[in-house]
Design goal:
The complex is a heterodimer. Chain A is an all-alpha fold. Chain A has one domain: MetI-like fold (Orthogonal Bundle). In chain A, 68% of the residues lie in helices and 0% in strands. Chain A is built from 14 helices and no strands. Chain A starts with 5 loop residues before the first helix and ends with a helix. By secondary structure, chain B is mainly alpha-helical. In chain B, β1 and β2 form a beta hairpin. The chains are: A mainly alpha, B mainly alpha. Chains A and B meet through α1, α3, α4, α5 and α7 of A and α1, α3, α4, α5 and α7 of B. Chain A: Keywords: Cell inner membrane, Cell membrane, Membrane, Transmembrane, Transmembrane helix, Transport.
Chain lengths: 282, 292
């Protein structure tokens, strides 16, 4: 505090409160809407205060079926989303750790070329090459499978760069000492490198989990079998019902359930999340 | 780092998974897009003929494509500028307050975790012309809100939903930038009698410019490529073509319109744009590293 200006301090708090209220507004209304019966929505307004059908709607959506043309219950799609998110997260972290290890701690021909090939993935987001990627995955017979959901998304230049940066900061004496004590490359990797990059891995885990959970276009394209529906993409299927028949209360409940896990991760692991966000942009 | 392990084949083994996935799911499709861009395929995908640059010529003589470019620019800059201004305001306020900084941060950053498609759906309902509270309120204020018919209103809606999600990110980076401004500078200005507003515009804001520029690039990239879900779950590019961004058009022409050649040509153009943006981003980051 440079000087005491009570009015300005008050204005700051007021602005922040307004900001928080505006940011929370859509979620608040969705929560309210999910506690009313579907019939409450035809009459020209969304209810503004809680109704009494909340438990019923949430129960139906979670355990019976999400409704609006999607017959799978939310808990099942949550499981699919979890498998996809964890598959992408662990896959990305594993292959990035390995390739960063190779690039930093070994000298071999075409090392720079490999680095550039990995770098190229940054320039090719899936949205841009969507049609041919779909064809490749269809040719490999990976449609409607967990492999198809995760594998094409787990190459990541960002994670490789992050680990490379982290490994480069490890003093050379440490490697020398390890080698002198007779540690081979695998032993060095598991006993020294992994423990040293623990925080980085955890921070990246948070970011990648959110990334994986929130995948939308890719699962939408390659899953037609509802055994592989993920929660976020199911919203699109639910919305494609004819206008008059949409049960908004169920859509709202499903939407809230779909955003709950990643939001909980951000709030619960805020420190790691912020670190991951800042690190992955370096 | 100069100390390395002597093995020659082990590094290849370590790199193999990453290189394989990159080759199969990134380079091969990219190469196919490049190839497809020079061919015209019939509607059943049975035969195709080499047409040279015709797909590109079609693309660049198509008024709809230019419209889509314009839509993308309007959309991206709106998202970037609105989101960054609001986030900067909130960050400056949060930097001022002494109590509750972390609580404010927590309550402002969670939308980052919401999937774009879900953000779209949430706002879509708030603005629904027949039952959304905001739309009804606007109507009583004399604004005839109907994003199903009015292209500009549909655009405003997708901008709001996309911005909402991105404010958290901008907020975090602005707050970090603000906290890095040397206290002594601000104190010196305060002793010289500069008001808080004057101090902000003459000292803090210029010092924030690296952060601002970085965020501008990140926001543009976000608006270009990560807002597909917002648009697809809500307006589907409509009404008309009013919210069809370039990325949405690649998808729409390829999967809905089945114009594979045209879609591939658009992919190639987009890859060039991403390449350019990545280079800009990296150039800038190199500079940042040198300064620090």
């Amino acid at each position: 505090m440079i000087e005491n200006r009570p009015w300005l301090t008050f204005a700051s708090h007021a602005t922040l409160f307004t900001g928080i209220a505006l940011v929370a507004l859509p979620v608040w209304l969705a929560l309210v809407a999910s506690t009313h019966p579907a019939s409450a929505f035809g009459v020209g307004h969304i209810p503004l205060w809680f109704g009494d059908a909340g438990a019923e709607t949430w129960g139906t959506v979670l355990f019976e079926k999400a409704g609006n043309g999607v017959d799978t219950p939310v808990w099942f799609m949550m499981l699919n989303s979890l498998i996809m998110a964890l598959g992408i997260t662990f896959g990305k972290i594993a292959i990035s750790l390995l390739s960063a290890y190779a690039i930093v701690f070994f000298r071999f021909p075409f090392r720079n070329l490999c680095f550039w090939v990995i770098f190229m993935t940054l320039m090719l987001p899936v949205e841009v090459r969507i049609v041919p990627t779909y064809e490749v995955v269809a040719n490999l017979d990976l449609l409607n499978s967990y492999t198809g959901l995760t594998l094409p998304l787990i190459a990541s230049a960002t994670a490789t760069f992050l680990f490379r940066q982290c490994f480069l900061s490890i003093p050379g004496e440490l490697v020398e000492a390890a080698r002198m004590d007779g540690a081979g490359p695998w032993r060095f990797f598991f006993d020294i490198l992994l423990p040293l990059s623990r925080t980085n891995i955890a921070a990246l885990f948070v970011i990648l989990f959110i990334y994986g959970w929130n995948q939308y276009l890719w699962p939408l394209l390659i899953t037609t079998d509802d055994a592989y529906y993920t929660l976020v993409m199911s919203i699109k299927r639910m919305l494609s019902v004819t206008d008059g028949d949409i049960a908004w209360n169920q859509i709202m409940a499903t939407t809230l359930l779909a955003m709950l896990p990643p939001v909980a991760v951000v709030i619960g692991m805020q420190k790691l999340f912020v670190k991951g966000l800042v690190d992955s942009e370096k | 780092m100069t100390v390395t392990f002597p093995q020659k084949s082990l590094p290849w083994l370590l790199l193999l998974p990453q290189l394989l996935i990159t080759a199969i799911f990134f380079l091969w499709p990219a190469e196919q897009a490049l190839e497809q861009a020079f061919y015209q395929e019939d509607a059943f995908g049975l035969s195709r003929e080499f047409v040279g640059l015709e797909n590109f010529l079609d693309l660049f003589t198509d008024p709809l494509y230019y419209q889509s470019i314009l839509t993308t620019l309007v959309f991206s800059f709106s998202v970037a500028i609105v989101g960054m201004s609001l986030a900067l305001l909130l960050a400056v306020m949060a930097d001022r307050v002494i109590r509750g900084k972390l609580a404010y941060q927590t309550l402002l950053i969670w939308p980052y975790a919401v999937a774009p498609a879900l953000a779209g759906v949430l706002w879509w309902i708030l603005f629904d012309p027949s039952m959304g509270p905001i739309a009804l309120w606007l109507k009583s204020a004399g604004v005839d809100w109907n994003h199903y018919l009015d292209g500009n209103q549909a655009m405003i809606l997708v901008v709001i939903a996309s911005t909402w999600k991105q404010i958290s990110y901008n907020f975090l980076f602005f707050l970090a930038g603000l906290q890095a401004v040397p206290r002594s500078l601000i104190e010196a200005a305060a002793i010289d009698g500069a008001s808080p507003f004057k101090r902000f515009w003459t000292i803090v804001f210029p010092l924030l410019s690296p952060t601002t520029f970085f965020l501008l690039v990140v926001n543009l990239v976000y608006a270009f490529f990560e807002t597909f879900g917002v648009i697809d779950a809500t307006t589907k590019g409509g009404p008309g073509q009013s919210t069809t961004t370039l990325v949405y058009k690649v998808f729409d022409d390829g999967f809905v319109g089945l114009d594979l050649g045209g879609s591939a040509a658009q992919s190639v153009v987009l890859m060039a744009i991403v390449g350019l943006m990545t280079v800009i981003q990296f150039r800038f980051i190199e500079r940042k590293v040198q300064y620090s």
